[in-house]
Amino acid sequence: MIELNPDRLSIFNYAHLPSRVPGQAKIKEEQLPKPETKLTILQKTIETLGDAGYKFIGMDHFAKPYDELAIAQEKGVLHRNFQGYTTQEECDLLGLGVSSISLLGDTYAQNEKISKPIML
Fold first, then answer.
1. β strands within the chain, DSSP E
2. What confidence tens digit (pLDDT) does each residue in 5-20 have?
């Protein structure tokens, strides 16, 4: 990934949810890394990406120093919403499509997670 040199990276922890993702039931809990191991992986990731010129924005986000997220972080004006880090203060977000999430005012809504034919 470092060789591709993207401006931003989001590196998410594996979420083991076999009740929602039936295929994950094949993976046994004892096969998953322990919390200490996961922390070590995160620390190594922060170190490796830092050496490659990325700033650790927070949680699971990294950006090049010239990226607007890194600049906002440096200035102390970085924000976070349910979708991740942003340079914008609170604003309405309209989600379109299966399982999309919207935030309008102080109300959250999520579309159904099952695709149905749309009648036009």
1. 8-10, 55-58, 61-63, 79-81, 84-86, 101-104, 107-110
2. 999 999 988 999 999 8
